[in-house]
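Repro:
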Amino acid sequence: MKKQIESYRDRRPSMMQLELESRLKKSFEDTKPQQTAAPSPATVHIDSSDKTDRDDFTLFDRFPDDPFDYVALSRQGLKKREHDAKVVGIIGAGASGLVAAYELLRAGHFPVIFEASDRIGGRLFTFRGFDDPCIYAEMGSMRVPPVHKTLMHYLDIFNINTRPFPNPNQNKTCYFVNGKKEFGSPDHQVDWVHRLYRKWDNTIKPFIDTMRAVWHDEKKRTATWQDLVERYREVSFRMFLIDQGWTLPEIEAFYTVGFGVGGYGSLFQISLIEILRINVCGWDTGQREIIG
């Protein structure tokens, strides 16, 4: 294992390696004599409205199947370890690994991040190697809805700005299907795309209306959502479209263009419940992208 770790370290760019090692060494030297300084009161403050009898986790009152408020947990911070700090290994320097390291540092531990590649960020990876400097491609996660409150919380902590991410058809969009290239826009949509989106809207609307009718009554909302879960728990997205009377050509076209944020073909085999959650809660609207 030691040889494997050393070989990975040797393959990393030297400046990145030195930066990480110097920071790690400084962290040990700065914190050995005394305990880690506590976060500012503004960081650890939790409003009384956040308090529950479940270890300071808070039930979201607006989103089904999402029971924990990790933002409240982050504001409180992990329990401080004054005399028994640990060295904690973290596999991967993606967003989750970096946040885990940040929270462990706040609690007085010594996180060590192991990353096999030559970059940090994980699925957050913007490629800019095009001839035109204005063109870039997102190779992993390219957008996030504001409902992802935990990520938004950490973006705010580190002053990382976002801007609206234009879903397909919110601006000029190119469709290249079966060797044919067509362009659509909010003012002039491609005919077959327009028909497909209208069919999807008519298919999903009864479910949205059902949940919207009970949205502001927590008990009814929970019970109604659970009824949908029980009814469709064994139904895939593709099976649902077939049951709704979609033809094979329509399903194949929808595989490519999807709805809202784009193609959903790769999700045809997942549970319909996830698709309902996205649409009922409007999670594919108001998407944001990280700047820079």
